[in-house]
Amino acid sequence: MALRKPKTKIKPPRKHGTDQSMQDTWAALARAIQEIHNHNTSKLSFEENFRYAYNLVLHKHGEMLYKGVRDLIAKNLDRLAKEQIIPAFPSGAEGDPTLRSQQGERLLKSFRRVWDDHIDSMSKLRDLLKYMDRSYTPHAQVPQIWDAGLDLFIQHILGPTIAEPLIATILAQIRIERDGYTINRSAVKSCVEVLLLLDHPSIYKKKLEPAVLQESTSFYREEGQKLLETCDAPEFLRRVSSRLESEESRCAHYLTPMTHPQLRAILEDNLITPNLGTVLDMPNSGLEAMIDGEKYDQIATLYKLYSMVPLGLPIIRKGLKTSVERRGKEVNEVNQDEDADEGEEGPAKPKGKEKALAQANAALKWVQDVLNLKDKFDRVQKQSFKDEISVQTALNEAFESFINRNPKAPEFISLFVDEHLKKGLKGKTEDEVDVVLDKTITVFRFITEKDVFERYYKTHLAKRLLNGRSVSDDAERGMLAKLKLECGYQFTQKLEGMFNDMRVSADITASYRKHIDDLVDVDRPIELSVTVMTSTFWPMTHSGSSCIMPIRMTQACQVFERYYLSKHSGRRLTWQPALGNADVKVAFKARTHELNVSTFALVILLLFEDVEDGERLSYNEIKDAVQIPDPELQRNLQSLACAKFKILKKHPPSRDVSTTDAFTFNNDFTANLQRIKIGLVASKTETTEERQDTRNKIDEERRHQTEACIVRIMKDRKTMAHNELINEVTRQLATRFQPNPIDIKKRIESLIEREYLERREDRKSYNYLA
Question: By its UniProt entry, which Pfam families does this protein fall under (predicted)?
Answer without folding.
Answer: Cullin, Cullin_AB, Cullin_Nedd8
